[in-house]
Amino acid sequence: MSETATETGVKSAGESAFAMTGGKVTLDRRPILRGVDLTVRPGEVVAVMGTNGSGKSTLVRALLGLIPLSGGQTLLYGRPPARFRDWWRIGYVPQRLQVGGGVPATVREVVASGRIARQRRLRRTSAADRTAVAEALEAVGLTARAGDPVQHLSGGQQQRVLIARALAGEPDTYVMDEPTAGVDAETQRLLADTLATLVLRGRTIVLVAHELGPLEPLITRGVVVRDGLITHDGAPPRPEGECARPGHEHVHPHAPDEPGAAEILGRGAGAGPLNWQGEA
Amino acid sequence: MIELLRTQFFQLALVAALLVGLCAPAVGTFIVQRRLALLGDGIGHVALTGVALGFLTNTAPVLTAVVVSVAGAVAIELVRARGRTSGDVALALLFYGGIAGGVMLMGIAPGGSNAKLNSYLFGAIASVTTQDIWVIGALAVAVIAVVVIFGRELFVLCQDEEMARASGLPVRFLSLVIAITAALTVVIAMRVVGLLLVSALMVIPVATSQQLTRGFRATMALAMTIGVVVAVGGLLASTLSSRVPPGAAIVLLALGGFVLALGVGRFVRRGRVREPGVHEPTPVREAA
């Protein structure tokens, strides 16, 4: 388990989904990220945690190239975002209070837009597109509401639409910004089930979370951001541990090769990625 | 009425109204979705300078209007993309400059007159020439082509710009495409409803349509239908009396349709609420 942490940044960038080195982000002259090294390898399920304003959301958006870096560099499958072409490999679930623009759009239309990176101009919607959209709707339990305007759905249901939109693109890597924030327990469970399936298929997942809730057993690696720096990178925190309590501030110095990280967090080194099966 | 249909000026007017009714709501759907409903107004103000420039330089005002309004639309998009609060004021300044510049140049221009200014501000569909129709027709083809070619990408862009970025779409290019298309639409609509009312044909049919529809495609299709109906309807209404200005008739007809749709939409939605709710998937609880 601690292997993940030890090898962070050592493996060649070509093998990793994301590789940020010395990443700095400044917004309105305020430093948000102050030199972040983070490498995410295929198959990892990384939870990026931290308090509000710690920069965790900025971090994942910078990983995707949505926010330009003011220093350092970040690579998507070995390429800087501006030169990255295989966007279909990435499924992004943004943090949104409200889905949709000024014109109504049906749930199906929004979910289908997740296929855009796989579609070509002037090509009609293919059977594969339709199947993927239908499966994504089914996965989040919104098939019956496919024809409804997304604006009419509750907050939790809108969150599910965004997740389905990412699922529809059938990407290798998912980036989810606070998918559990402000959603009902039902949606949280559904999200956990969906993620469990993705983990079984070997997908890479990076998610920002304030608290993990039912997702906790799925996480293989925890990254804690504080004041724009990574203060912990290694074993995911467990709810039983004192350090893992929601709201608890992690003050461990950033030392990926520190052997004690897992013990500090009260989690043995044997916790594998598929542990959720035994624990759920 | 039948004799009127045979006259050339009316046939030209009818074609112009049809094209405007079709194009303006199509572009308008994307603009409203992007919450830029007033973009058309902004471009319309800037286009006035273009028209006046045409009179000043003795070129076809429709052509100079295309050039200047496209330049204005690009400027507006660049200011918008920077996304700072001062952008709001920068846009306002551009609009005032457009109107003032237009009135000033028109005053200086040898052939300029208040009557001509008015015909561009409020439309003069009866004075549409064959040359105008060729320009309007070409622009209309360009606008519809953009919607057909880029429609899917523009939907994602206008729906969720960050998502568009994370999908690798050329966001800057597509933003310019939509701004330029809006500028072309303004010029198409200029002769029919006038620069001060062009935006009405981009926004009102969409606002009307979305009272009754549930999806994006449906909204656009219905908005285009409404656009054609009110444009042609307003034109026909103006033939009843020479005192009825067609531009204003078209816009008022569109507004009337909106009020009607608002009522119908309320009624329909109230009916929908009483439908039995769709069942949520029951939570699966395995043994803990």
CATH architecture of chain B: Orthogonal Bundle
Radius of gyration of chain B: 21 Å
**H/E element string of chain A?**
HEEEHEEHHHEHEEEHH
Beta-strand fraction estimate of chain B = under 5%
Global morphology of chain B: globular
- The average pLDDT score of chain A comes to 81
Organism (chain B): Nonomuraea rhodomycinica
InterPro entries (chain B): ABC_BtuC-like (IPR037294), ABC_TroCD (IPR001626)
Membrane topology (chain B): Multi-pass membrane protein
Main location (chain B): membrane
Helix and strand arrangement:
The complex is a heterodimer of chains A (280) and B (288).
Chain A: H1 2-6, E1 18-27, E2 30-40, E3 45-49, H2 56-63, E4 71-76, E5 90-93, H3 107-112, H4 127-139, H5 155-168, E6 173-177, H6 185-200, E7 204-209, E8 221-226, E9 229-234, H7 261-264, H8 276-279
Parallel strand pairs in A: 3-7, 3-8, 5-6, 6-7
Antiparallel strand pairs in A: 1-2, 1-4, 8-9
Helix pairs in contact in A: 4-5
Chain B: H1 2-6, H2 8-33, H3 39-57, H4 61-82, H5 86-108, H6 114-122, H7 130-159, H8 161-166, H9 171-193, H10 198-209, H11 216-240, H12 246-273
Tags for this entry?
heterodimer, A: 280 residues, alpha/beta, Rossmann fold, 6-stranded mixed sheet, 3-stranded antiparallel sheet, disordered N terminus, disordered C terminus, B: 288 residues, mainly alpha, ABC transporter involved in vitamin B12 uptake, BtuC, 12 helices
